[in-house]
Amino acid sequence: MFSINMKMFVQGISIVALTGAGVSAESGVPTFRGPEGLWRTFRPEDLATPEAFARNPTLVWEWYDWRRRRIAACQPNPAHRVLAEMEATLPDFILITQNVDGLHQAAGSRKVLELHGNIWRVRCTRCGKVVEDRRVPLPEIPPHCACGGLLRPDVVWFGEPLPTDVLQQAWEAAKRCRCMLIIGTSALVQPAASLPVIAKQSGAYLVEVNVADTPLTSLADEVLRGPAGEVLPRWWEARRASLSGWRCQ
Predict the structure, then answer these.
(1) Which homologous superfamily does the CATH classification assign to the domain defined by 44-73+124-155?
(2) Which segments within the chain are labelled E, that is strand?
(3) Is residue 88 classed exposed, middle or buried when 0-12, 13-18 and 19+ CB atoms within 10 A define those classes?
(4) Where in the sequence numbering do the catalytic residues fall?
(5) C-beta neighbour count of 98 within 10 angstroms
(6) pLDDT above 50: residue 147
(7) What's residue 249's pLDDT?
(8) Which CATH code of 2.40.110.10, 3.40.50.300, 1.10.472.10, 3.40.50.1220 fits the domain covering 6-28+75-116+163-243?
């Protein structure tokens, strides 16, 4: 898991990108609340909870195994790739994502803060060990740890707090950034939706990239309408030469 060394950023983090489900949807990943959100006769909101897992871990894992198989067939899109290019080009760039599919890392991003975890990691409910497991389909449902404990997806479920260290680093990045890109997020899920507000209050320049208005649109200094895979590469191409030393006015 990526961890920010704040000493690296003596002059502060210049650019932060916050991504949501809209970015992954362009790669074919079903959105959590979209028309493909239903699985069998269950609502995802009724499966992604500690209570559902305690009640029926096999059912929950069947759903996650289905999701993993769907995601395994997806590839990073131009928005993922251009964000990886930004990281490689800019010395002060951090990516904060609400997505759990790992497509940012597949595109080459390394400075990634995963607010909601990663579907390709599993965590033991007995010993707490976290490991990556990309087997598709899983050979055992529900899967078990070498210690014999039941494994669960290493993701944040409804009713669970976000990882404290990741959230703290996200807050710090938002406070210190000079510019925040808000890409493909509905801005409805907290506490992620508060990060642009924190950035704005700290003087950052906000750029929203989305196909429709969100609760954050009125705060944005620049609004780009359309699929992120189309508009974000154009925005980056127009600014790539100057962004290394860019300080938004």
Answers:
(1) SIR2/SIRT2 'Small Domain' (3.30.1600.10)
(2) 15-19, 93-97, 112-114, 117-124, 130-132, 151-155, 179-183, 205-210, 222-225
(3) exposed
(4) 116
(5) 23
(6) yes
(7) 40
(8) 3.40.50.1220
